[in-house]
Amino acid sequence: MRLDDRYVPYLQMAGLYHLARLNDRWFRIDEPLVSAFVERWRPETHTFHMPFGECTITLQDVAYQLGLPVDGHYVSGFLTDFHLYIEGGRPAWQWFHELLGVLPPENQIKKFAVNCTWFQETFGECPDGADEETVRRFARAYIMMLLGTQLFANKSGNRIHIRWLPFVARLEEMGGYSGPLQLLQSWIFWQFPGFRPRGYDAFSWPLSSRWSGYNPGISNKGPRVQNVRLRIDLLQPRDSISALDVIQVVHPEVLEPRHTMLWRCVTSLIYFAVVEWHQVDRVLPQFGGVQPPLHPALNIDFLMSKDGRGGDRWFPSHLQYWHLHWETRAEHILQFDIVADPSPSHEFLGWWHQHGKRFLSPEMYLGDQRGIPIPDEATQRGAGRVPDMERVDDVPDRRRDTS
């Protein structure tokens, strides 16, 4: 859907304007690259395991790459039973009609999700001369598409869940909430320069717009995954950037203290029934700190299977402990020294070599053959000694005398 200038005030109100600007500057996913990094994700630590230590996408990365605010309310509540859980809520489809002015036909609905094609056909172009209420309805539809396809896409990627109705009903409050594969790929390019495509040197805001138009090839995916996997296995600490020097293009709103202090916060990240852990105490080099040996990671395996299915509920009560973690986030901000060289300490590397999941490639690809001496009997292997060449009378003998 095209970003209409008339939507901008509503997008700014919702804190989504910078994300919306990426709409015409997206790039294609490099599937082998992303797949090789996804293999590195360890759910037990909520980080990527690399040969030299752990790393992850932090709230700072979300702010820099997508231009999103990170301090605000958790994105939670309920999925469909709006009339039961929210003051002023309506039965789902009645509220949908009130907010968007139209209902999708039954063949465009699957349970509580609407086909993206219907949104695009119905709200693709806001009419010229539309009144304010019509523009607001089109802006709501645009925001639902933005959230459902770019920020919180489902597995199919072609339907929009109506869980977003309470959020678009109060656009003026939406900027107080904090929240795709594009984020992961852009983070890889910025964090690991060796994987960056050539010819994308200029950058602006948000940072992921740097890769606008990038279109990797789609052939030889299997061999390319193996190649990227091996390249990751051979990474050294110097191949990862500890702190991005991009302050000259960062929007001032993102640098407000209430946002920046949360970049170093160990807390829960919530999306309705889904809870993830912002485990930045395991990735201090990304902030310019030295990583000490790690403590055992928080075990939240029992939360990994929760997706909201099995009946709607008020998740702030059902998962109260984790919501309270986010509410008290200011109490869990890390304090550590920033150093010129945040390379891993010897103490940490010794620990990591014992406990980390460092390599994924077969050992035959990782061994350095230069370190293996040639055995004395190597010259005797084979069918036998190469016979001497027969001399030709009219050709001079230019062989070196080795005696």
Automatic annotation (TrEMBL):
Pfam families linked: PMD
Entry's transmembrane regions: none
A GO biological process held by the record: meristem maintenance
Domain of life (superkingdom): Eukaryota
Location of the region described as Disordered in the Swiss-Prot/TrEMBL record: 370-403
InterPro entries, sorted: AminoTfrase-like_pln_mobile, MAIN-like
Biased composition (Basic and acidic residues): 387-403
PANTHER family per record: PROTEIN MAIN-LIKE 2 (PTHR46033), PROTEIN MAINTENANCE OF MERISTEMS-LIKE (PTHR46033:SF8)
Name under which the protein is recorded: Aminotransferase-like plant mobile domain-containing protein
Origin species: Arachis hypogaea (Peanut)
